[in-house]
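seq:
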Amino acid sequence: MGEFTPIATQEEFDAAIKDRLSRAEEKFSKKYEGYMSADDVSKLKQDYELKINGLQKAADENAKKYADYDKQIAERDARIKGYETASVKTRIAHEAGLSYDAIDFLQGDDEKSILESAEKLKKLTGANNTQPLANHDNNGGSSKDAAYKSMLSKLT
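struct:
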């Protein structure tokens, strides 16, 4: 072996351990290859925070915009159900031979219950109470026309 020479300056020390430091650095760079540095992580975090804030603002704006849509839909559904029920009541009253004024007295939410209500109402009011759609007896004509109509109805 050679003689030991003491290291007196920093430059001599750096030159002596330079090879050892480069091997250690290479070893750790291979070991942690693919990992992110702290700076990369903080930059990525900031990017994500910006995206999250932007999406949160958009979500809040949409929430304000669509806040009462559920309420409006429920009101429209109730209104449509009311129209459908009124239509069914009108049809059943007409089929049962009830007057159009009797529609208000029919009860029920489905066709079966409305039909039962119409039958009960028909039993209470009598046989056939249909209301004429128009009154043709005296539509602005003279009493002479009314007399002829009366006489004609008695003949048949």
